[in-house]
Amino acid sequence: MIVTSEYRQFIGDLKARVTAARLSTARHINRDLINLYWDIGQAIDEKQAVMGWGESVVEVIARDLSAAFPGTTGFSPQNVWRMLQLYRTYTDAQFISQLVRELPKDELIREQTETLSQRVRDLVAAVPWGHHANALAKLNDPAARLYYLRATARLGWSRNVLLNQIKAGAYERAKVENKTHNFDLALPEHLSEQADVYMPRS
To answer: What is the mean predicted confidence (pLDDT) over 79-93?
Structure first.
């Protein structure tokens, strides 16, 4: 068979479709995983508040979940602690206040508490677990956390890119210089690294 330019174009199009489908699948898997971890963190937080459970309950929950789902990764004590931290971090009053401050006034008028909470959850679920566990957890400033969270969700930064942006002080520079960028407009969609889904091993 003679490989023609038409065939090369055809196979190139098929490869692009496969790549796009893989990225889409990875994003859906990641979103489901983050929502599960959010729910677990929320459930633990609420039970601690109602039942008066101490912090040691996290270790017990991790052990019982690991026993209930043998062969499933992600239920180590450290990881269950991260789930609780994820929920507490992004429902913290300071973080929500930062989001409210950055909303345009017309949007703020329309936002209700429930829709605001859902907006936060959707934003958090758009970022892979490894980013939360390895990078965003290192940030204490709610404004910086929101900046990097939005940038990662919008631009599809890999964990390494996110870590490098944090180390380089991208938030501080953007705040001082008040600069905007066109990364998402300039980069082709297939270069997105959003599919860097992290399934924890511990």
So the answer is: 94
- At 150, the amino acid letter reads R
H helix and E strand count, the chain: 11, 0
CA distance 89 to 77: 18
pTM: 0.78
What lies within 8 Å, CB to CB, of 117 at 6+ separation is 91, 96
Residue 20 near residue 190 (C-beta atoms within 8 A): yes
| pLDDT number for residue 106 | 61
Residue ranges in 52-140 assigned as alpha helix (H): 57-68, 77-91, 93-102, 105-110, 113-125, 129-134
In terms of C-beta density within 10 A (0-12 exposed, 13-18 middle, 19 or more buried), how is residue 167 classed? Answer: exposed
The number of residues in the chain equals 202
Q: Which residues contact 17 (CB under 8 A, 6 or more apart)?
A: none
**For residue 24, what are the contacts with CB-CB under 8 A and spacing of at least 6?**
none
Output DSSP code: residue 99.
H
Quick check: 202 and 76 in contact, CB under 8 A? Answer: yes
